[in-house]
Amino acid sequence: MGEKDKVKTQEPKKDYFMDDESKNMDRKPLIESDSYKAAGKLEGKVTLVTGGDSGIGAATAILFAKEGAKVAFTYHSSDEDATRTENRLKEIGAEVLVFKGDVGDESFAEEVISSLTDKWGNIDVLVNHAGEQRYQSSITDIKAEQIDRTYRTNIFSMFYFVKAALNHLSEGASIINTSSITAYKGNPTLMDYSGTNGARVAFTRSLAQNQEILDKKIRVNSVAPGPIWTPLIPSTFPEEALEEFGKDGALGRPGEAYELAPAYVYLASDDSSYVTGQTIHVNGGVIVNG
Hints:
Elements: H1 3-8, E1 46-49, H2 55-66, E2 70-75, H3 79-92, E3 96-100, H4 106-120, E4 123-128, H5 144-165, E5 169-178, H6 182-185, H7 191-208, H8 211-215, E6 219-225, H9 232-236, H10 239-242, H11 257-268, E7 279-282
Parallel strand pairs: 1-2, 1-4, 2-3, 4-5, 5-6, 6-7
Helix pairs in contact: 2-3, 2-11, 4-5, 5-7
């Protein structure tokens, strides 16, 4: 069976599984697979996913809903993506809260946590996923505004949401940060983005050892995606770079968002009760020794 046929066997049934930004893409990103079997691993848990309207964030939110969780998610600007994901979560049967705003703004993080906890009480799972990247072939093209924006979205937001949520995290809660293979390999055209992901890994390891976190038995881990086919990829990279995207791993192809989401379920659930300060590498077989 060829690579193209393998992808076809996993195609979802409904168009709203596709991200709004991907309408004109030759290859559609997939955020849900019919092959997943839920087991109630997050029954009744209160979960929050930043950047949960599309891509990996939406795929994670959908599996959390399938596992019985209440799901809140944030998004920045795509109302259509957010509505589609919200409707899908409700179709699954989840209680849902949706927040629109800038995760790089501390006051937004405080508003989200306040509204969520007023509605649902304590938080059991916090997923810091929201992020952004911009392709630049030369460091001289990376302006101060871009650096500030990338770090504000990708790393400042993690501090803001953890700070705002800390007093509302239940004992034994899970914090999951999305990092990236670029934290370990680097990327010459995503230098500021790679830098933020190195910071995300260091933040994860440091927070996992923090005494306030340990006192509440909170586990802190990260997931480091490799080349995953989401709308961010064709909108970020020049067309000539897309042809080789994801082909350097052992599996020889980019991954799909739905292939990432089970890692988040594992880290959110009691299945990972002895795992903290760690990173799960879901990257198609790229060895990073990290």
